[in-house]
Design a protein that fits this description.
about 160 residues; alpha+beta; 2 domains; two-stranded antiparallel sheet; globular
Length: about 160
């Protein structure tokens, strides 16, 4: 909560979602490591009209966020940061009776809940698309969105 509050103070009028990370041991896939004594949380800043339009943070906001991230990384509180590019650069893969349908962004509706989030390394959006369609079938998801990360051409996240 403290991290999210400090982030919101830097960013201004934003909506931030905080949720616990589901670990492999939480769903019975592996035993919980003996040295794990804390719960990890994901802090997600939801898209705004400016972020979907590709408007960058002001130089002051960028500097303040860099200081906040550096401080919290040094203390071990902050593990990683990724920024999604606008949905106009993404694709949605949706299961249907007729097979997988592909829709290019932007995505007009807002997703209120995120069921999961996976980051994959791919050479291109097309390479990530091959992964996404296999993933969609494997986990029997209704849909998968592919979004590029800011500043990382070859890494593409998928949210489902």
């Amino acid at each position: 909560m403290e991290w999210a509050s400090r982030q919101a103070a830097v960013l201004g009028d934003v909506e931030i979602d905080i949720r616990p990370v589901t670990e492999a041991w939480d769903i019975g896939m592996s035993p919980k490591p003996g040295n794990v004594t804390t719960q990890r949380y994901m802090v997600l800043q939801k898209a705004t009209a400016d972020s979907e339009a590709g408007v960058p943070l002001s130089p002051k906001q960028q500097a303040e966020m860099a200081r906040l991230i550096d401080e919290t990384k040094r203390t071990g509180v902050h593990l990683a940061t990724e920024t999604l590019r606008p949905s106009a650069r993404g694709r949605r893969y949706k299961n249907s009776r007729d097979g997988v349908r592909v829709m290019d962004g932007p995505f007009t509706e807002s997703k209120e809940l995120i069921a999961g989030y996976v980051i994959v390394s791919a050479e291109s959006l097309e390479d990530a698309a091959r992964w996404a369609t296999r993933y969609l079938a494997t986990v029997e998801a209704d849909e998968v969105d592919l979004r590029e990360l800011e500043g990382t051409r070859a890494t593409v996240p998928a949210s489902y």
